[in-house]
Amino acid sequence: MNDKIFLEGMRFYGYHGVLEAENEIGQIFLVDIYLTLDLKDAGESDSVFETVNYADVYEDVKEIMEGTPVNLLEHLAEHIAKRINSHYNRVMETRVRITKENPPIPGHYKGVGIEITRVNQS
């Protein structure tokens, strides 16, 4: 199945990170979510009940990203993927990408981050 719902470029301010400066000052995190699921029924019925409401997914991601600070982006991504896969049984696979555009590390780059893909086991 290659059908996807995506939420790209979500921006959240949080205090996640290993470095002390990240916990004190905080920073903007850029989050992209890609959900693999069958969209055929929704396409034919025009019913939101045959798909996943991306407004609900946004609220799930926002709660995690603006919630309790953690050290690792990997931890945030796992939490997001688990939340989506446990709340939306239509989702077959969740891909989460989190980027720090301006972490307090020297160098010139567009961003640093992680990306994970998790299959829904439910």
From TrEMBL:
Keywords: Folate biosynthesis, Lyase
Positions of the Dihydroneopterin aldolase/epimerase domain: 5-118
Protein EC: 4.1.2.25
Transmembrane segments: none
Example of a GO cellular component annotation carried by this entry: cytoplasm
GO annotation (BP), single: tetrahydrofolate biosynthetic process
Record GO terms (molecular function): dihydroneopterin aldolase activity
Superkingdom of source: Bacteria
SMART domains: FolB
The keyword Lyase appears for this protein: yes
Catalytic reactions on record: 7,8-dihydroneopterin = 7,8-dihydromonapterin; 7,8-dihydroneopterin = 6-hydroxymethyl-7,8-dihydropterin + glycolaldehyde
Pathway(s) of this molecule: Cofactor biosynthesis; tetrahydrofolate biosynthesis; 2-amino-4-hydroxy-6-hydroxymethyl-7,8-dihydropteridine diphosphate from 7,8-dihydroneopterin triphosphate: step 3/4
Quaternary structure, from the entry: Homooctamer. Four molecules assemble into a ring, and two rings come together to give a cylinder with a hole of at least 13 a diameter.
Reported function: Catalyzes the conversion of 7,8-dihydroneopterin to 6-hydroxymethyl-7,8-dihydropterin. Can also catalyze the epimerization of carbon 2' of dihydroneopterin to dihydromonapterin.
Family: Belongs to the DHNA family.
Record's protein name: 7,8-dihydroneopterin aldolase
